[in-house]
Specification:
Blueprint (H helix, E strand, L loop, with lengths): L4 E6 L2 E6 L47 E7 L14 E2 L3 E8 L4 E6 L3 E10 L2 E7 L3 E4 L11 H9 L4 E2 L2 H6 L3 H15 L9 E4 L13 E5 L8 E4 L2 H14 L3 E5 L3 E10 L2 E9 L11 E6 L3 H11 L7 E9 L4 E7 L10 H19 L8 H14 L10 H16 L36 H22 L3
Parallel strand pairs: 3-5, 3-9, 9-10
Antiparallel strand pairs: 1-2, 4-5, 6-7, 7-8, 11-14, 12-13, 12-14, 15-16, 15-18, 16-17, 18-19
Helix pairs in contact: 7-8
Length: about 475
């Protein structure tokens, strides 16, 4: 399949797009570029600088020696700057493509991997890109209150795209009760003192929400982040009301005791880098992750490190993980949830954290994106012959062309039984039947035929044996 050409048809965009051929006009700036409240503002002078899929600047990478990194994140963070000038495999560049889940479409094939289409609208300019990603960094939630992008996650897995975190682990994070069930297993192994998980109850639907819990209680409906779907309930009547809401959503729900906390605890692990923060609401909201809050980085201790290390072992291993807990006014700590590579970065060290993520990505790309050496037709045939004749468990390693030619000549000599003078009349191989003779196994060798009338017969028999030999190696020809 030709990865550089794809047919695209969507609305008013039609025709054939080729990788790097589509360079859209840059719309005039109408105002300052947006920046996230928790991240530094961009300093680019034109919209889209650093976003590989719609920058009008000349690419800063070698098109013939580069690997493509697809970062799934919003436009508030320009990830290309963290990989600019970075090399892998000595002299291979990193080409960064960045988009949100909502801007991505893809198709995956068993024989050729995953092809991604990006269609975005930037300042009135519609931009389309088509490319094959070599690696994936996911910084957005695959599933949230109103969105579910598991269909794209399945496509990336179908196409075999390596990722941070691994796509297998990200699929495990699609339902919070599933994640919490694995936290319960950690607590049973380590004990409540070492891993203080909050007590929780799970209801598959509203029909089971009959037993009145101890109030106040926090009801979490379905799978959501950033405080969505979470309600504090103070009485049995309110609990029945919220059960009726769960009936409308047709979703599961969990309940956990409301903890009057001093502050939230956020423990993060990026590769081998650890950080811990405390966050206290100053807006009066019982959800410290909503509204205004005071944030402070605190010292990392062995207890927090154990939490992060244990959670990082879930689902086959997590390259990035964040553990959320509450420090109660009763002096106890309660772990409430865990997030993966889509975790929120906090504080004044966000730039440092992003650089740690970039280094983590580069290290993984060194492992999973190694260039595949191309083989010529001659060397490929020689490798197949070596594989078929020697019964090796895999293709032969690459070797210098001269050595390949010598090996092929030796193999052909063994098949044909040529002597150094190239006389087909003397074609005898060790343990081979005499060519063109009448003898049987175990009989004495036949005399060497004279050059003349019998030579053409010997040559004809030689070709027949060659055809039989190659048919046995490569199938009927």
């Amino acid at each position: 399949m030709n990865f550089l050409k794809r047919r695209f048809s969507s609305g008013d965009l039609q025709g054939e797009l080729r990788d790097e051929d589509f360079i859209p006009p840059v719309a005039p700036r109408k105002g300052p570029s947006p920046s996230a409240p928790s991240s530094p503002s961009k300093t680019a002078s034109a919209p889209g600088i650093g976003r590989g899929f719609f920058s009008a600047n000349k690419p800063t990478y070698n098109r013939d020696r580069c690997k493509t990194l697809l970062v799934i994140d919003d436009c508030h963070t320009d990830w290309s700057k963290y990989f600019r000038g970075k090399k892998i495999f000595g002299d291979w560049d990193i080409r960064v493509e960045q988009a949100e889940f909502s801007e991505i479409n893809l198709a995956a094939y068993t024989d050729s991997g995953c092809m991604v289409d990006i269609q975005v609208n930037r300042n009135g300019t519609k931009v389309v890109r088509s490319f094959k990603p070599d690696f994936l960094l996911v910084r957005q939630h695959v599933r949230d209150a109103h969105e579910d992008w598991r269909n794209l996650l399945l496509g990336f897995q179908y196409g075999g795209v390596p990722s941070i975190n691994a796509l297998h682990s990200q699929y495990q994070f699609l339902d919070k009760p599933w994640v919490f069930a694995h936290l319960i297993m950690i607590q049973k192994r380590l004990g409540k003192e070492m891993f203080p998980l909050i007590e929780q109850a799970y209801y598959p639907n509203h029909k089971e929400m009959l037993i009145t819990p101890k109030f106040p209680v926090v009801v979490k409906i379905g799978h959501a982040h950033s405080g969505l779907g979470k309600v504090k309930i103070d009485s049995p009547h309110s609990f029945q009301d919220i059960a009726s809401v769960v009936a409308v959503t047709k979703s599961y729900a969990t309940t956990e005791q409301f903890i009057e906390g001093k502050y939230d605890i956020h423990v993060q692990k990026i590769g081998n880098n650890y950080k811990a923060y405390l966050r206290k609401s100053i807006s009066g909201n019982w959800k410290a992750n909503t509204g205004s809050a005071m944030l402070e980085q605190i010292a990392m201790n062995e207890r927090f490190k154990t939490w992060a290390d244990e959670c990082a072992e879930m689902f086959g291993g997590l390259d990035m993980v964040a553990v959320e807990a509450i420090q109660g006014k009763d002096g106890k700590e309660y772990i409430i949830e865990v997030n993966g590579s889509s975790m929120t970065l906090l504080g004044e060290t966000q730039e440092e954290d992003r650089r740690h993520i970039a280094e983590l990505v580069l290290g993984k790309m060194q492992i999973y994106c190694r260039p595949t050496p191309t083989m010529s037709k001659t060397s490929s045939t020689g490798g197949l012959m070596h594989y078929a004749m020697n019964g090796s468990q895999g293709p032969t390693p690459q070797m210098p062309p001269q050595q390949q030619q010598m090996q092929q000549n030796q193999q052909m000599s063994q098949i044909q039984g040529n002597n150094p003078q190239g006389n087909p009349a003397n074609a005898r191989g060790p343990g081979m039947m005499p060519i063109g003779g009448q003898g049987q196994m175990g009989s004495s060798p036949m005399p060497v035929p004279q050059v003349g009338r019998n030579q053409s017969m010997d040559e004809e028999d030689t070709m027949k044996n060659l055809r039989k030999t190659f048919a046995g190696i490569f199938g009927d020809m």
